[in-house]
Amino acid sequence: MSSRLPVLTESRWLRFGVFTSYYLLQGLPVGICFIGFPAWFTGQGVSKELIASFSAISGLPWALKLIVGPLMDRYSFLPMGMRRPWIMGMQGMLLIVTSLLFFITDAVNQFWWLVGLCTAMNVCAASEDVAVDGLAIAIIPEEERGRANAFMGAGQMLGISLTGMVAVKLLNFGGVPALATFLFIVIMVLFIISTLIRERTGERFLPWSKGEANPEINVLDGSIYAILKDLLRTLLMPMSVLVILVTFVHRLHAGLYKVWAPDISINLFGYTDANYATWSGITMMISAFVGLAFGPVVDKIGAPRAFKFCLLAIGIWYTSVYFSVDSIANPKVAAAFILLDNSLLMLIFIAFIAMGMTLCRVRVASTQFACYMAVANLGLSGGSAIYPIVSDFTGVRGVSLFLGALFILSWLAMFMFNLDRHKKDLAQLD
User: Fold this and answer.
1) What is the number of alpha carbons within 13 Å of residue 354 lying toward its C-beta?
2) Which residue from 215, 196, 207 is spatially nearest to 1, judged by alpha carbons?
């Protein structure tokens, strides 16, 4: 059986397709936690403080990915592949947690139970993401990374938009159990895909199947402490520190936006929660295809240059929104606003992922990349948490100006970035 299974290292388009499915699965919990439930809670009259707490807490696991990174670098069941056992395990856990959502029959009165389950879902999805990113760094050739990241980003965006678009409708139709049914079916299909794909030729289909570890791969030697010490030396290199700071600052935007967008759309302009979720879902799907066209551009001009361009473009965009926010009251303008915003964020996501991979040291690549993503998601959770403070200080309209400032500052800081210097520093460490 295992000898007839598809192998990722043998087909570019198989890699693109499978990694797209991995990222699509990761987008499902993100979609319900940052679009579906916030929009639905807003329509139900839940306070913005509670909604901000929901998004901040449930999204926190994405900031803690560095905890599982060293474990995945150090331990694995190599006869099934370096990352596949972790990917399958986390997807299986996600199925179990999703099934517990059937017991939430009153989301408003069982609010904190729901927060706990959504947080657990994101623990599983974030851990799967660490394994997937480690696998991507190991088997995707450098000349494919821009295109591969575009497919991966499109998959995540499709997952987010899919759940964001249907979540409110399902919640209004049958409550959390209806949403849980949809999620369980989709996750099960993606889990089956993972079981049918091998990383490399000759590996096992299941733990008890025939097969053996590929001699080209091995886990890191030494203790977890030694790995972390080696990782810290890499992370504290000047260009790495710069990217960490820029990443945290500009990702504050994502958390702020996830609470600000439904707040301004529903409470200020009177749109329904269903309308907002539908617009977000459709525009995210469109932006996913915009991202696919951007992948080859990143490969051509280089990830750092593409990243700086995106920072500047988004900074100008949000600054201009401050002076024209009243026009969002027009439904067509609002839809165009959400589409442009999601498209720009898709582009910067692709550029950021590609740039993060170029900074990684081979020895600790999985954990190092997990750290960059953890910082990004810590900024996301932090942005959600500070939204009530920012909106009270600037007013709901003024949040856009604050967002623009975050991106402009990040763009200015990136002028200190020097990839050639970073590569020389890496060579000295090795």
Assistant:
1) 35
2) 196
Could you tell me the CATH superfamily of domain 2-210+222-429?
A: MFS general substrate transporter like domains (1.20.1250.20)
Q: Is the pLDDT of residue 381 over 90?
A: no
Asked if the model's pLDDT at residue 394 lies above 60, the reply is yes
Closest residue by Cα to residue 417 from 231, 234, 238: 238
Confidence check: pLDDT of 1 > 50: no
For the chain, the C-alpha Rg in angstroms (whole number) is 21
198 phi and psi, to 5 degrees?
A: -105, 155
Per-residue pLDDT tens digits for 222-260: 566 777 777 888 888 899 999 899 888 878 877 777 777
**Beta partners for residue 198, in sequence order:** 7
Q: What are the extents of the domains in the chain?
A: 2-210+222-429
Amino acid code (one letter) for 22: Y
- Four-residue CA torsion sign, 27, 348, 400, 386: positive
Give dist(CA 376, CA 280) in Å, integer: 22
